Amino acid sequence: MNQPTNSAQWKSICRIEDIPVLGARRVAREHGTAVAIFRNADDKVFALLDRCPHKGGPLSQGIVMGESVACPLHNWNIGLADGCAKAPDVGCTTPFRVKLDDNGVVHLDAEELNRLAIEAFEQTA
């Protein structure tokens, strides 16, 4: 799970129960590709751009195993903490800071939601 900082402005997204165990929930953004929030078997949460670095597959539709997700298109294993493909594959998708509070609410860094991976989206649109 990405480590939150005290200076971040957090946006409440959902309750942890709203994310399937070993699955994901998509968070649409006004601009840019959606963000996928993942939940593993240990109830750790992670957030990545919902786009595989290989061929752009929707990672939110992949299978979570430990702290990785398998892309549904070509089975690339992507690390949930850093967004990077596991060897021998190479490439990374954008990770987002995420936190789970004591009440079971999942939050994303609001500034990152508005800034990260927007440029790449605008160039392809």
Automatic annotation (TrEMBL):
Looking up SUPFAM superfamilies in the UniProt record yields:
ISP domain
Which is one Pfam family of this protein? Rieske
Q: Which UniProt keywords apply?
A: 2Fe-2S, Iron, Iron-sulfur, Metal-binding, Nitrate assimilation, Oxidoreductase
**Span of domain Rieske:** 10-107
PANTHER family given for it? Answer: 3-PHENYLPROPIONATE_CINNAMIC ACID DIOXYGENASE FERREDOXIN SUBUNIT (PTHR21496:SF23), FERREDOXIN-RELATED (PTHR21496)
Name the chain's protein: Nitrite reductase small subunit NirD
Q: Which organism is it from?
A: Pseudaquabacterium terrae
What does the organism's lineage look like at the top? Bacteria, Pseudomonadati, Pseudomonadota, Betaproteobacteria, Burkholderiales
